[in-house]
Amino acid sequence: MDFLGAVIIKLISLGFRFNLKPTQVLVFGFAVLILTGAILLTLPVASRSGQSVGFLNALFTATSAVCVTGLVVVDTYTQYSLFGQLVILSLIQMGGLGIMTMATLIFLILGKRITLRERLVMQEALNQLTLAGVVKLTRYIIATTIVFEGIGALLLSLRFTKIYGFSKGVYYGIFHSVSAFNNAGFDLIGNFRSLTPFVQDPLVNLVIMGLIIFGGLGFSVIYDIFTTRNFQKLSLHSKVVLTTTGVLLAMAFIIFYFLEYSNPKTLGALSPLGKILAAAFQSVTPRTAGFNTINLPDMTLPSKYFTILLMFIGASPASTGGGIKTSTFAAILMMIYTVITSKEDVEIYQKRIPADNIFKAVAIAVISLMLVFTSSLFLTITEHADFLKILFETTSAFGTVGLSLGITPDLSNFGKIFIIITMFAGRVGPLTLALALGSRKKKAILKYPEERILVG
Question: Whole-model pTM?
Answer without folding.
Answer: 0.89
